[in-house]
Design goal:
single chain; mainly alpha; Growth Hormone, Chain: A
């Protein structure tokens, strides 16, 4: 019976260590990056809503899996070019482009009321967004945190994404059910455009910092 009253001091120390590391890893650059990612994520609807929209645009139930397949193909295809482009012109710039793809697919979902071909097009663009965004966001983190704190940085990043995703899909679904699909997509469009603006400002700020360091050296 005594086993139930034993405190695992080693586990407690590890937990406290994680909280201490979280405080260390949240430097100015990483914190502002997380804020921008949070703004984007809190309006980023799940792929399932793309499939529901495709059905509403005229894609029959039997063909919806094909829409999902196209979405996945686009996601896979986008990954490698996105990584190569990020190395060439900068990860922040490519991430702005990814948010732009999300905004484009969202605008198309707002404006389109029918059309099977358009449904496939929206799914393809959304897939490009997923492949680009997922690849580049993870690649940015190592450049914003110290080497020994990268594990904690990724933990905070995924914690934020998970929490925001839960809120985003709840709000998106509620708006879709209680108001309209247009209202739901409009909400996501606003958050994605806000993320584009935020990341653009952040990119400009990082560029000035890099220039100042270069001059100093």
């Amino acid at each position: 019976m005594l086993v139930y009253f034993v405190v695992d001091k080693g586990g407690l120390k590890k937990t406290m260590s994680i909280f201490k590391n979280a405080g260390k890893v949240l430097n100015r650059k990483f914190t502002t990056f997380l804020i921008v990612i949070g703004i984007s994520a809190i309006g980023a609807y799940n792929f399932s809503f793309v499939l529901v929209k495709a059905n509403a645009l005229g894609v029959d139930q039997a063909t919806v899996p094909l829409v999902y397949a196209i979405l996945n193909v686009a996601t896979v295809v986008a990954g490698l070019p996105a990584g190569l482009l990020a190395d060439r012109i900068g990860k922040d710039k490519v991430l702005i482009g990814a948010f732009g793809l999300f905004a484009l697919s969202t605008v198309a979902s707002i404006l389109t009321t029918s059309g099977v071909v358009l449904a496939f097009g929206i799914a393809f663009i959304y897939g490009l967004y997923l492949g680009t965004s997922d690849t580049v966001k993870r690649a940015v983190i190592p450049f914003l945190t110290a080497g020994e704190l990268k594990g904690t940085a990724y933990a905070l990043y995924y914690l934020l994404l998970g929490a925001c995703s839960l809120v985003a899909n709840f709000l998106f679904g509620a708006l879709w059910d209680q108001v309209s699909s247009t209202a739901a997509f409009s909400y996501s469009l606003v958050t994605s455009l806000a993320a584009v603006v935020g990341l653009t400002v952040l990119t400009f700020s990082w560029g000035k910092t890099r220039s100042a360091v270069s001059v100093a050296n």
